Amino acid sequence: MRRRRISGERGAGSLLGIAIVATMLCVVAMALPLYSVLAVKQAVAGAADAAALAAADVRVGIVPGEPCAVAAAVASANGTELAACEIDGLVVTVTARRAFAGFAVGVSATAGPPDIGPHSGVE
Question: What is the pTM (predicted TM-score) of this model?
Answer without folding.
Answer: 0.72
